[in-house]
Amino acid sequence: MVAKARSNFVCQNCGASYPKWTGKCENCGEWNTLVEQIIETKGASAVARSHSHGKILKPQSMRSIAAEDSVKRLPTGIADLDAVLGGGILPAGVMLLAGQPGIGKSTLLMQVAAHVSEQYAVLYVSGEESASQVKLRATRLGATSGDDLQFVASTSADDIAATIRSGRYKLVIIDSIQTLSLEEIASAPGTVSQITNSSNVIIRAAKASGAAVILVGHVTKEGSIAGPKVLEHLVDVVLQFEGDRYGGFKVVRAVKNRYGSTSEAAIFEMNDKGLRVVENPSAALLAERQNADGSVVLATLEGNRPILVEIQALVNSTNFGYPKRTASGFDLNRLNLLIAVLEKRTKLNLSDKDIYVNVVGGLKLADRAADLAVAMAIASAAAGRKLDDGLVVFGEVGLGGEIRSAQGADKRLNEAEKLGFTRAIAPATSGKKNSFVKGVKDLRQALIGYLK
Fold this sequence. Notes:
It is built from twelve helices and 21 strands. A nine-stranded mixed β-sheet has the order 6-5-7-8-4-9-10-11-12. A four-stranded mixed β-sheet has the order 13-14-16-15. Strands 2-1-3 form a three-stranded antiparallel β-sheet, with no helix packed on it. Helices cover 27% and strands 25% of the residues. The chain has three domains: 6-51, no CATH class; 72-279, P-loop containing nucleotide triphosphate hydrolases (Rossmann fold), CATH 3.40.50.300; 283-450, Ribosomal Protein S5, domain 2 (2-Layer Sandwich). The protein is globular.
């Protein structure tokens, strides 16, 4: 019988070691820094083994290394997703797709697997669902027509790696990495040790066989990928699946991409046939808009793609001593900063007001150029005044109330013109110098000039 490997817990801050996990390191006082590590049980030390078993490597010049430009990528069948990946799925590449439960990760991967299986052999490995459960999804998505899309239910990283090394499959999808375990490690699936070592075994198998591997990753309550940070370093591509799982748009963007850009984004919506690419998200987001006080149209960027989205604000007198500030789709800390700037640099008094901000469509904005639109929406709601119908807004707000330039101004303005907007409130340094752009230098000028 093979002996189980022993493990201990090492603090990532000070290096102290403990035989079992505790929430707080007693040596340095830090919380949640203990990481499980395998203890080497062999007699010889690591240094002694390296001296006796190491060999001299044979390097080669950069000129002699064959370029991978000629490697044929696997198309996913979704043009926008191919753009996010840098042209498609690269053979021998390992990709990690993470997102909230129920957002559509398995649906998206089943659609990709069905398309790739039209030309190549694909293996779908599930550690969470049975064959009948996956068959129901595949039937709904129309992914049961061919024999090259095969399925197996397993949580053994050893068996999955051996299957990948067989070389029979061009694409292997594993749902999910948090359910896998190695036989020689005694800890439960989902622990740091199991995730790290299982990932290493599968990645080595993918590189050796030339098969592309897609790993599904769970996320924590805070939205970060569950497990050790080293998991994101090990893989070649990290995709984040964001959005509202109950409706609205869903966005896939690359957080890390060794083979392409991280500035692309694919926008989807869910229907009964699976995920569908949204061809014109700006028109869809503004279709039901009613111009009222507190409503402002923002020209933002999702990756390199310009999108017009409605920002809504509601300002109401508070019934308690401490005013409430709530943001949906916008960073709450950034909202509090903008409220402070509004109070300091203008004559608005918001200290006794409850303020609610909403980004329509379920999008989550990380664009600093949304500052001016959010600030104008709050001022509009507080004053009971609205902007003209044909106005679109963007620009970053500084602590002094100044309006700073935004990245991709030309793309934002072109999208606004294409959808019929007549004027843009933008930084004075914006690229276009014509009657369409109304440049503003500070927040006070923007409010006085455009709130009617």
